[in-house]
Amino acid sequence: xxxxxxxxxxxxxxxxxxxxxxxxxxxxxxxxxxxxxxxxxxxxxxxxxxxxxxxxxxxxxxxxxxxxxxxxxxxxxxxxxxxxxxxxxxxxxxxxxxxxxxxxxxxxxxxxxxxxxxxxxxxxxxxxxxxxxxxxxxxxxxxxxxxxxxxxxxxxxxxxxxxxxxxxxxxxxxxxxxxxxxxxxxxxxxxxxxxxxxxxxxxxxxxxxxxxxxxxxxxxxxxxxxxxxxxxxxxxxxxxxxxxxxxxxxxxxxxxxxxxxxxxxxxxxxxxxxxxxxxxxxxxxxxxx
Length: 289
Ligand code: SPV
Ligand code: MG
Description:
The protein is of the alpha/beta class. The protein has helices spanning 3-12, 25-33, 43-49, 60-72, 89-101, 130-143, 164-176, 192-200, 219-224, 235-254, 267-273, 276-286, and strands at residues 17-22, 38-41, 78-81, 106-110, 150-155, 181-184, 207-209, 229-232. Helix content is 46%, strand content 12%. An 8-stranded parallel barrel has the order 1-2-3-4-5-6-7-8, surrounded by 9 helices. The radius of gyration is 20 Å and the shape is globular. Sulfopyruvate is lined by residues 42-45, 81, 118-119, 210, 212, 233-234. The site of sulfopyruvate has 11 residues, from helix 3.
């Protein structure tokens, strides 16, 4: 099955699915070997791993370069966090065409303004008009080179402090414009507004959620609410920060690496993850004297 078709199936099937965040080839491979069906190429995590804020400081081609390595190193589909599309409908067209060419299975576009700000920073954030954002969704769908490429429309109304009616109105408009799924985002810690959105959602268009702030809500509650797909949006990056900091501080404290050797990945693990042994076999085949 094509990666696009796999992602489309993940979004459309009845059972709850899970996308794991990745921000480079290594985190993508680790998510894949852990059994995840698909990847979330997180804008926050890719930016952070470059030392940049999640405000479109990284150019779209810099993001694309990172995603390229992720595609090369995995077989599962990747949904790229495309932020606002890096400009207007015309930038969206170019982005989607390139993503299609590079083997990315889908893009998520959010209804904020370029340059975007992370949803968990500040209070109210300016939203694009419904008509402008619907134009971006249509432009994305018209630019995909693969019929199953997925465009996920992300509704930031609740993040911006708008009422539920506005979120539902936007979500319905985006589904009508051709979105393959709607991502409803929330920064509340109890998940109540997400549950309420799901209760009032009468459209067939699948719902995607990102339970970063409402992490205590049981996964079964999402299942019962009819959510299609859950994105664990930044946990690989945050895990790596915690692990790197702990080990680095430990080495600094002890001026020795002996005490951490057993807590870190072995070199053999690094070689396996970077296909070293496959290259050695290929040498036997191709470097014949
Ligand atoms: C990301 O992972 O970049 C996201 C999700 O867009 S959030 O950070 O929750 O906005
Ligand atoms: Mg993002």
